[in-house]
């Protein structure tokens, strides 16, 4: 017989739960922030609502679950810190700053990051559980900072140092510094940022960010974990994502960069002066004199890097290595780094390589490797470098990659390097560089002998790629690769689908490069 529990026995627990729910409801609220206080007459969520000014908002303390709408256009003065929220959210109940339809935060330029305090249009410094949601129509912009404009100032859109469990999504960040002339050589590119971040559990996704110096400035601390940058479009900048720290050793990561589109470094060219070296991704350890950080995992996959790359580009991906007492390598010898399913193209000669990977551990044992990338240059066979691996790399698996169109298709230094199942094409007179020896494309067998690998690889004059760098129906890339399904469980699971999202076969040969199918099988637009 089922035992009945008297009501009085459960009532105290029920009342406690009810009181908890009512307490949360009482503290969570919705605010509407506009240029002026009063009844707002436009927008969607804001229409008909009573608004407060930014100054009033900055005096309040937010509670978990609060939603704060940006209403209409809010214009600040030059150098302003516009929104400085107080109070933390909680797990499952972040404080949200949401842009109503077409809402804008603007100023001639916003306050710069003090690298330990508040700057920007929105400052999240030292906070936890915050979400900034542009709802795909919201914008943060500078209106007068750049070449031949009224101001040439350090600035940023969002300050996020020491922010944990923070998200920025569906937002446009525009015109932080508009660089339009090679003669403009005084801008402080590293201090002109879209978002400055440190802390754990960061998500930056589905944003459009353009015209800035170092757009994403990720200066991590020891112990910072789980930073994900995904689905963004970043262009007309000097650096796309800077990942750096002053930590020596420690234990930080994972850091994940995937499904982003990065291009347009040429906007920051300075000609022969070469004041700014451009990178899509630049990882280094700052001011540690050759003693790098330990990164549990750095994964870069399913991205499109393209031109115009400009005259002063180092590379789409620059994983910095050693090379002297003042060197600042990205990662130590046990840091796992994985680079796969990326499409990287160049329309002018690059300096170091479309990918320059010079420190860390790129082996499957450490969760790393360089797999199924497509690197292609249209600068001409006498120009540029497709891939460089050297310096402090402690091991590298390099398989199923396609490299074409560069004078130097691949260059390696004296590092543990095991390439195989790759396809090379349309190289120049120095197509293969092995331990300081230069081999033209006609001497591929000499490269194989020197490097002690690439036994299942081949060089052909043409890889038969179409304009999106996808193999044509009779391309030598098709079914020429090794099946890497065994690597897919865990952190590298995206490798079992290609750049376009098409599943790769679980058995049988894979197609070399970022695409698993030919253009006659299926047409995939770049994401």
Brief description of this entry?
The protein is mostly beta strands.
Structure write-up:
The longest helix is centred in the first third of the chain and has 21 residues, at 7-27. The radius of gyration is 25 Å and the shape is elongated. The strands form three sheets. It has a 13-stranded parallel β-barrel. It has helices at residues 7-27, 54-59, 444-451, and strands at 30-33, 38-39, 50-51, 67-70, 73-75, 95-99, 104-107, 122-123, 128-142, 155-160, 164-174, 192-197, 202-205, 208-219, 227-230, 233-245, 249-252, 255-258, 261-263, 278-285, 293-295, 297-301, 304-306, 313-319, 336-340, 343-346, 355-362, 369-371, 374-377, 385-399, 402-404, 408-412, 417-420, 423-425, 432-434, 437-439, 458-460. The chain has two domains: 29-219, no CATH class; 245-255 and 277-527. It is mostly beta strands. A hairpin with a 2-residue loop joins β35 and β36 (437-439). The protein has three helices and 37 strands. The model is unreliable at 1-26 and 522-527 (pLDDT under 50).
């Amino acid at each position: 017989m089922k035992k009945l529990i008297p009501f009085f026995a459960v009532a105290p627990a029920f009342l406690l739960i009810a009181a908890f729910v009512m307490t949360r409801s009482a503290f969570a609220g919705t605010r509407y922030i506009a240029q002026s206080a009063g009844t707002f007459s436009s927008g969607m969520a804001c229409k008909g609502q009573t608004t407060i000014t930014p100054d009033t908002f900055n005096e309040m303390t937010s509670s978990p679950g609060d939603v704060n709408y940006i209403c209409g256009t809010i214009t600040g003065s030059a150098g302003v810190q516009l929104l400085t929220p107080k109070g933390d959210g909680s797990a499952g109940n972040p404080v949200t700053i949401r842009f109503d339809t077409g809402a804008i935060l603007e100023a001639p330029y916003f306050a710069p990051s003090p690298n330990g305090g508040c700057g920007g249009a929105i400052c999240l410094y030292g906070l936890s559980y915050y979400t900034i949601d542009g709802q795909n129509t919201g914008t943060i912009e500078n209106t007068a900072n750049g070449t031949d404009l009224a101001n040439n100032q350090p600035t940023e859109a969002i300050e996020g140092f020491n922010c944990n469990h923070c998200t920025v999504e569906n937002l446009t960040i525009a015109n932080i510094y508009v660089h339009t002339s090679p003669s403009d050589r005084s801008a402080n590119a590293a201090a002109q940022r879209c978002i400055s971040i440190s802390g754990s559990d960061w998500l930056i996704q589905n944003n459009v960010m353009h015209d800035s110096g170092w757009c994403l400035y990720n200066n991590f601390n020891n112990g910072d974990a789980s930073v994900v940058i995904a689905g963004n479009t970043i262009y007309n900048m000097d650096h796309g994502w800077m990942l750096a720290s002053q930590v020596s050793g420690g234990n930080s990561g994972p850091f994940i960069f995937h499904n982003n589109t990065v291009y347009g470094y040429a906007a920051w060219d300075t000609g022969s002066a070469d004041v700014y070296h451009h990178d899509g991704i630049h990882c280094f350890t700052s001011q540690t004199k050759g003693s790098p950080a330990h990164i549990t995992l750095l994964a870069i996959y399913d991205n499109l890097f393209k031109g115009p790359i400009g005259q002063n580009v180092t590379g789409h991906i620059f994983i910095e290595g050693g090379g002297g007492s003042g060197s600042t390598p990205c990662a130590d010898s046990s840091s796992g780094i994985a680079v796969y399913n990326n499409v990287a193209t160049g329309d002018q000669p690059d300096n170091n390589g479309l990918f320059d990977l010079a420190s860390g551990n790129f082996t499957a044992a450490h969760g790393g490797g360089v797999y199924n990338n497509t690197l292609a240059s249209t600068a001409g066979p006498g120009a540029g470098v497709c891939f460089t691996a050297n310096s402090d790399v402690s091991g590298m698996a390099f398989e199923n990659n396609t490299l074409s169109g560069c004078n130097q298709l691949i260059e390696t230094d004296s590092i543990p390097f095991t390439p195989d199942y790759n396809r090379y094409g349309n190289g120049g007179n120095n197509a293969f560089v092995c331990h300081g020896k230069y081999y033209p494309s006609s001497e591929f067998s000499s490269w194989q002998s020197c490097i002690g690998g690439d036994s299942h690889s081949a060089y052909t004059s043409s890889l038969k790629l179409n304009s999106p760098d996808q193999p044509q129906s009779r391309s030598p890339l098709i079914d020429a690769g090794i099946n890497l399904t065994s690597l897919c469980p865990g952190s590298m699971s995206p490798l079992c689908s290609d750049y376009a999202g098409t599943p790769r076969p679980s058995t049988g040969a894979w197609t070399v490069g970022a695409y698993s199918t030919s253009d006659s099988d299926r047409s995939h637009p770049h994401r």
